[in-house]
Write a structure and sequence with these properties.
Number of strands: 28
Shape: globular
CATH class of the largest domain: Alpha Beta
CATH architecture of the largest domain: 3-Layer(aba) Sandwich
Number of domains: 5
CATH superfamily of the largest domain: Dimethylsulfoxide Reductase, domain 2
Number of helices: 19
Strand order of the largest sheet: 1-5-4-8-6-7
Length: 598
């Protein structure tokens, strides 16, 4: 007998708590035992038959099924024979029961014949677009027509045709002839993104995917419908007819836009990026990515980007093209002359390795602590907050911190100074999923209820700009509140609750300090989520005045000695460093002689 567990999201309505990097063991009383193709297997209650078959390595054809979407049973391609039932059943909609005996198409002539019949019906109106379809070469319908279809069609009529393609948004094109009405796209839009802008319209033979007249598919996550469409009915306007899958080289990557760290797959050909897809990472973005992460990569191919270094001519003052050795020599001369009077602005989009290199370069080579990554509103209070409560803290650093899983499992979440859908789309999807699956309560401390807060089932705590510290202190004390405010104060005291603060709180004096007090008083975990991908790594790398790599303060003599030895210098700069605003002011007044901008 085989005892297995489904992966996260595979059992309808079930969530297993993580335990030491793996899934928690399921008690025997929560298991059911069934037989699939003569093999006995025990799975948790609520597991779908199609998932149990996957655990045994039995691949049942399907189109509508997706492990992160609610079962629909729309395509009927996954039908299997179940002992005791009068007719074959869709394995994507039936849950395993004790003693169930299932036969897939591998052992049941009934299931095989039924699947071939469904495939024949699906192909009646499906066009023979494979030679030109973007999905060709990676198409489930193409593959399963070969494995579960017939060599010849008995259909002799004229195939149904539609106008094609129909642009349902700037990024997504719809080819209704190819659609098999699996409802993956509509279920994603309704269930995952919370944007019910694309629906199945009409009925019977006239049913098709569409949007309301004059209503475009305006979703931050619309590109995911392209990726999960199993037949090429939804295609990317930017990628359409650009390449074939077998001509592409795929490289795993991480999205460079927000701080979410979504896993992506970059497909390129002859050194040119052709498209970007969401990668499967259950710990981070699952299988989703926002449209910015999917489509916003062509900036690297724009014609107005510099292709050669430019050096300013000493006589004319004009920038003139130069070779790399000439440019590096000119930069080196200027920086050597400005040693001790130079500033470094790294920005928030560097990799952690680059941020570390700039932090080392500033202190060991330029002899300055004038370095900052914050190209936005900032404050000394925020710098202290980052040093005390962010640097050196995290799952991989001290075993603590907030992960996507713990955020999803939190009974209550408070958002302060951040709009999740706009600034951290992956976080928004987890909040919406948690509310939909387990009733998580989300509270937004803001001046108005945003679309993202509403879609996550959130409750607005109305705070006029600048009054966030008062609200946070009230939540900490649990006094002077009523209605939703009192409910938030009570909810945040539940074990596992989370307070999420964004970079905008840096513009409100006392807000970050009040957030620390609120977290301490309620017992909620505190997490800082900036807007840019490299800011969290920059904090850890020491690309901030007064902060050395690893989150150690620059005023700590022991830390200074250790870092100086590691970098091979006698000592680190002693003068306290400036932040971004002060660096720019010093450069404008001539106090600094050089500025390095990454």
């Amino acid at each position: 007998m085989t005892v297995l567990q489904p992966s996260s999201g595979s059992a309808a309505g079930s969530h297993s708590a993580p335990s030491g990097g793996g899934e928690a063991a399921v008690p025997p009383e929560d298991l059911v035992t069934l037989t699939i193709d003569g093999i006995e297997i025990s799975v948790p209650k609520g597991t779908l038959v199609i998932r149990a078959a996957e655990m045994l390595g039995i691949e049942i054809p399907r189109f509508c099924d997706h492990p992160l979407l609610d079962p629909a049973g729309a395509c009927r391609q996954c039908i299997v024979e179940v002992e005791g039932q009068r007719k074959p059943m869709a394995s994507c909609t039936i849950t395993c029961t004790d003693g169930m005996v299932v036969k897939s198409q591998l052992t049941s002539p009934v299931a095989e014949k039924a699947q071939r019949g469904v495939m024949e019906l699906l192909l009646i109106n499906h066009p023979l677009d494979c030679p030109v379809c973007d999905k060709g070469g990676e198409c489930p319908l193409q593959n399963q027509a070969m494995s579960a279809g017939q060599a010849d069609s008995r259909f002799e009529g004229k195939k149904r045709t539609y106008e094609k393609p129909v642009p349902i948004s700037q990024q997504v094109l719809l080819d209704r002839e190819r659609c098999v009405l699996c409802a993956r796209c509509t279920r994603f839009s309704n269930q995952i993104a919370g944007d019910p802008m694309i629906e199945l319209i009409e009925r019977g033979a006239l049913q098709q995917v569409g949007t309301g007249e004059g209503d475009p598919f305006e979703s931050y996550f619309s590109g995911n419908t392209i990726q999960i469409c199993p037949v090429g009915a939804l295609t990317s306007a930017a990628y359409r007819f650009r390449s074939r899958p077998f001509d592409l080289v795929s490289s795993p990557s991480v999205c460079e836009h927000c701080a979410g760290g979504c896993a992506t797959r970059t497909d390129h050909r002859r050194g040119k990026v052709m498209r970007r897809l969401a990668a499967d990472d259950p710990e981070v973005n699952e299988e989703w990515v926002c449209d910015k992460g999917r489509f916003a990569f062509r900036y690297g191919q724009l014609p107005d980007r510099l292709e050669t270094p430019l050096v300013r001519d000493a006589e004319s003052g004009e920038l003139t093209p130069a070779s790399w050795p000439e440019a590096l020599e000119a930069a080196a001369r200027g920086l050597v002359a400005a040693r001790g009077r130079a500033g470094v602005l790294t920005g928030g989009r560097l990799t952690v390795e680059d941020s570390y290199a700039y932090a080392k370069f500033a202190r060991a080579v330029l002899d300055t602590d004038d370095i900052d990554f914050r190209a936005r509103v900032h404050s000394p209070e925020e710098a202290g907050f980052l040093a005390a409560h962010v640097a050196g803290h995290g799952r991989d650093l001290d075993g603590q911190g907030v992960t996507y899983r713990s955020l999803e499992a939190a009974p209550a979440v408070l958002l302060a100074g951040i709009e999740a859908e706009e600034e951290a789309p992956g976080v928004f999807l987890r909040l919406r999923k948690a509310h939909r699956k387990s009733g998580q309560r989300t509270f937004g401390l803001a001046s108005y209820a945003t679309r993202g807060l509403i879609k996550a089932g959130g409750t607005l705590l109305p705070a006029a700009p600048g009054t966030e510290p008062e609200w946070l202190d009230a939540l900490a004390g649990g006094v002077g509140l009523e209605g939703e405010g009192q409910a938030a104060a009570e909810a945040l005291r539940a074990e596992g609750s989370v307070i999420v603060v964004g970079e905008r709180l840096a513009a409100v004096p006392g807000a970050l300090t009040a957030a620390v007090r609120a977290a301490s008083a309620t017992g909620a975990r505190l997490v800082w989520i900036p807007r840019r991908a490299g800011e969290r790594g920059a904090v850890e790398a020491g690309a901030l005045a007064g902060l050395l790599p690893g989150g150690r303060p620059a005023t700590d003599p022991r830390a200074r000695d250790e870092v100086a030895r590691a970098w091979g210098v006698a000592a680190l700069p002693h003068r306290p460093g400036r932040d971004t605003g002060q660096i720019l002011e010093a450069a404008a007044t001539g106090e600094l002689n050089a500025l390095v901008v990454a």
